[in-house]
Design goal:
With about 400 residues, this protein is α/β, with parallel strands linked by helices. It is built from 15 helices and twelve strands. The chain folds into two domains: about 150 residues, 3-Layer(aba) Sandwich (Rossmann fold); about 240 residues, no CATH class. About 35% of the residues are buried.
């Protein structure tokens, strides 16, 4: 076993040596790394693996590194070897910390974590997995031990730092609404933010844009395919016809969002029924490929028909949609950035109701207050604008929230 483990250690050391330490995602400082069981889920390509390796590289030095093991369960090595044997060897040879990447490749991942937690007392475990991962009620004892974090793609603020343009601290929504003019003037004094905003919308949500110089959108299409073809069946027991229908559903919606297609016609087109159609729809949401908007958050929990459907982020829109509609692009950016830490609902007037209080209409720089002018706490999020005034806030500024 020692020789076999040596292979995994070499891979770990090779990846650790090439892990960059110049930029850290927003989630890095939010994680309490002292917890004994930590889960990090998020869409494929958002930087979860790098996050783990950065923590290891920064925290464990010299001899301490010998107590750490990082493995990724998508490695073909695990098709003929059991992760439990690896854990046992690591633990009995003085290992104190285990980092498991891509845990959803292990069919019974919840049972695996429970067994590790029960059978290897004191071992610190951090794992990453698809954003589709859910803790079932039957694993309630595991959920009590687990601290779960969710990671998203780059915000505009992070993109500016990652792209070497500008370092700026995140702001809260309240700070933005109260002082957007001052914040915008500070940013715009240092850079021409609108040109970077345009670049961000096109390529900036996924950090790997720096390493893929040609065929970036094809790579994103491959990411979407892998989520549906690999992650989905690894997390839920589904058939090949369901996988094909789910891919078809994503492509149909990519052409029609955010206007909700007639659902009965959509189910007919997919040759499926309402129940199965909604299950596929919500699977795509959990996978980080769609954003669903309703007038009541409880409807999302009950797999009800949403009021609006969006592709999850602008960059994925460019990858999936031959012709990107500018109005849809603006709304997609807004819901993507605000859905991190805020409650968004579909209002009777306007485009988005945030935290059950703030009403937003999203549009171009010529957008007027006509639809929401008499409603308290109402704002315009306007594109092609560097600095706003009053309740007119530049759209790009909503990318500073995390």
């Amino acid at each position: 076993m020692e020789e076999q483990i040596g292979y995994l250690i070499k891979i770990f050391q090779r990846r650790l040596a090439t892990t960059p330490m110049s930029f850290f995602r927003y989630l890095y400082k939010e994680i309490d790394w002292n917890d004994t069981l930590i889960g990090i889920k998020g869409p494929k390509g958002c930087g979860k693996s790098t996050l783990l390796l950065q923590h290891i590289k920064e925290t464990f030095k010299g001899k301490e590194l010998e107590k750490v093991l990082y493995v990724s369960l998508d490695n073909l090595w695990f098709s003929s070897h059991d992760i439990i044997d690896v854990v046992d060897y690591h633990y009995t040879h003085g290992g104190t910390h285990l980092f498991i990447d891509e845990i959803h490749y292990y069919k019974h991942w919840q049972t695996l974590l429970k067994n590790i937690s029960d059978d290897f007392p004191g071992l610190h475990v951090v794992y990453t997995g698809s954003s589709m991962l859910q803790l079932e009620s039957s694993e309630g004892d595991l959920s009590r031990r687990l601290t779960m974090y969710e990671m998203r793609g780059l915000s505009l603020r992070e993109f500016l730092a990652y792209d070497g343009v500008l370092q700026i601290s995140s702001v809260t929504l309240d700070e933005l609404l109260e002082n957007h003019v001052g914040i915008a003037m500070e940013v715009c004094a240092k850079t021409k933010v609108l040109q970077h905003f345009k670049k961000y919308l096109q390529i900036g949500y996924y950090p790997f844009y720096k390493t893929v110089h040609h065929g970036y959108y094809q790579r994103l299409q491959s990411v979407a395919n892998q989520v549906i073809e690999v992650d989905y069946p690894n997390v839920e027991d589904i058939t090949m016809p369901t996988i094909r229908k789910t891919k078809k559903l994503l492509m149909i919606l990519a052409e029609r969002v955010p206007q909700l297609p007639k659902m009965n016609e959509l189910y007919k087109e997919l040759e499926t029924d309402r129940n199965q159609g909604l299950k596929m729809l919500y699977a795509l949401q959990r996978a980080g490929l769609l954003q669903l908007l309703t007038d009541d958050a409880k409807r999302l929990d009950n797999l009800s028909r949403p009021d609006k459907i969006y592709i999850s982020n602008p960059t994925m829109m460019y990858a999936l949609t031959p012709k990107v509609d500018i109005g849809t692009l603006r709304e997609t950016f807004f819901i993507n950035q605000l859905s991190q830490g805020h409650d968004l609902r579909y209002p009777k007037a306007g485009d988005f109701l945030v935290d059950k209080r703030f009403l937003f209409e999203v549009g171009g720089k010529g957008k007027k207050f006509d639809q929401i002018k008499d409603i308290p706490d109402s704002f315009l999020a306007v594109d092609d604008t560097e600095v706003g005034y009053g309740n007119r806030i530049p759209l790009w500024m909503f990318g500073l929230l995390y």
